[in-house]
Amino acid sequence: MTADAGQDRRSVASYGEVLDVVDVGRVRLTRRYGCIRRDQFEIVTKEPFPSAFRDWIASRGELRERPTFYVIEAPGAFQLTVAPRAGRAILMPRLATDLTWQAQTAREIAEVLDGMLNHGSCLANTRQAG
Amino acid sequence: MAIDERVIVETVTGMGLAGNEEGLIPAFGLYLTNHYADFYNRISFGVLGALVRENPELTEDAVALLTEAAHVCAFHTFGGIMSSVEWDALVQPMIESREDWVRGMMAVVNAFGWGRFRVAELLPDERLVVELRDSYESSGYLESYPRTDGPRCFLANGGMAGLMNLVYQGDITRRPALTEELYREVFSDPRSFRSRERLCAAKGDSHCEFVVERMQG
Amino acid sequence: MGVGKELVQVVEFVRGRARGSAVVELARLNLLVGRALSRNAESIPDDPELVARAWVCAREILEHERKAKR
């Protein structure tokens, strides 16, 4: 997903409309229009998210865990809600970030997740999000 | 596993839903707003009063617009919740039938504290009867106005129709994109669901009650 | 001045062209005009001023709907 992907579509898009879908290895990343200043990113895999992913993303912010899902709150940056067993997460960026950063961050998270799915639990990609 | 309302309510209330520095609550894939029920009530009932003050015969029309606002709200809010990651993780594993989508949503709504909703009757694809106690709309109304002769829970009433339309008309179980196009398609269908508030605490009933049925087309 | 003929035309114009719920668009018409046209048009005199205002409101509603649709 490039930073300007969906740029043409977003000028006429309405809330929830899909702007772009890309596969990052085994991870499907869907970008939806939120408003003029932020999009929403869905991260989906066919298998459950590895627990190493939670450990990695937890280092980016405050982790709130419920029995079946968890939420990472990266202050001023984003909120990521993860249903690990369902293999699904939603990235909701903060308004303080710009669209380019939002897309890059979503891509980066997808790449790290794909790396983990391909190589067990090792941190295949250590670039930071948030 | 059937819908376990206790687990859903405990989990959702334990999520620590609160406004962030933007004044929003990012949850269920939505940006929920954090504001007082009294604030909503004042706007809602104030709009009704302003629209019909000059001509009471327009009450029906003002209510139609407030109900439309509730339909739009239900479509995006309930639809968003039922498409969310949280739903996938928490409610979806309990779902055994299409009717469980209705019951699951009702449990989430109860966790939000909008009142105590209870499904009294649910005939698949046909009819829903919901009882509501401690509705913030009816209690808010009685705090500021005398007892009325008509129901006043416009948001809850439209919300119940929205829920049935999402489940049986728009087939939310297939996760459609919640676009304006779909909204029109679902709610403009002559056989789509509409709700009527048969009982309302604002008019002296012990609780509020909504009956949701398909229009006759 | 006739009764209800022209106003009925306005109501039918909105009902026939509404892309969403006709009930909602007719409620908008009634509120903008300040009269319950969709229910009583047949019995309201076709006062030229009222008819003109009703047409303006009807076009405004449908135009707004068309714009929102884009």
Automatic annotation (TrEMBL), chain A:
<protein>
    <submittedName>
        <fullName>Uncharacterized protein</fullName>
    </submittedName>
</protein>
From TrEMBL, chain B:
<feature type="domain" description="4-vinyl reductase 4VR">
    <location>
        <begin position="131"/>
        <end position="214"/>
    </location>
</feature>
<protein>
    <recommendedName>
        <fullName>4-vinyl reductase 4VR domain-containing protein</fullName>
    </recommendedName>
</protein>
<dbReference type="InterPro" id="IPR024096">
    <property type="entry name" value="NO_sig/Golgi_transp_ligand-bd"/>
</dbReference>
<dbReference type="InterPro" id="IPR004096">
    <property type="entry name" value="V4R"/>
</dbReference>
UniProtKB/TrEMBL annotation, chain C:
<protein>
    <submittedName>
        <fullName>Uncharacterized protein</fullName>
    </submittedName>
</protein>
